[in-house]
Design brief:
By secondary structure, this protein is an all-alpha fold. It has one domain. 69% of the residues lie in helices and 0% in strands. The longest helix is centred in the N-terminal third of the chain and has 23 residues.
Amino acid sequence: MFLDRISNDYRRWREQRRTVAELSRLSARQLEDIGIAPYEIEDAARGMFRR
């Protein structure tokens, strides 16, 4: 249903924002350790990150 779709989209968006916030707190060295560059945080949070 339409409201379910909106609810799911909002939930996914909130999770992505939370992930970006958490990854943004890490140092460049910590990000490097997990294989993410600072400029890749947004893509990683959206699940679009591919190495």
